[in-house]
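During the no-cost extension, the postdoctoral fellow (Dr. R.K.) reprocessed legacy sequence entries with the updated structure-token encoder. One reprocessed record is reproduced below for audit purposes.
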Amino acid sequence: MKRILLLILMVCCILTGCGENKVTISEINLENTNDNVKNFIEIVDYDEKGTGTGIYMYNDSKNKRFLYLNQDFLDDGKGFGDIDIKTDENSINIYLNDSSISEEEAGTYKFYKLNFKGDYEYLKVFKNGEETHFEGMGV
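Re-encoded structure tokens follow.
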């Protein structure tokens, strides 16, 4: 009986250890965030000059961040496309794309919540396959 319990405990530890370095992302509504995040977005929208990348990151905690994309992210005639995240042993790579759309389909922003498990040294962002940079970071 003790061996069975020990075996079950070992399997659980191994499975838990294998899932440590994971990043999840979900699109959320800006209204469902705390006041600190909302204040950061208000400052970003007020201060923007229209010449940046339109990519902003807010660090809510060590393992929870928010990604905000505004109109500066988009090229003329483009809309917000898909997003993908890939990780390796020490970096998180965020891949953003735009897409061709009509004016009626154009959104004004996209807002995502990212949950990290594990420690990463680098956070990189790519637009349409080319590495770019965050326009601003908030804490």
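Helices lie at 2-18, 35-47. The longest strand covers residues 78-87. The remaining legacy entries will be reprocessed before the final report is submitted.
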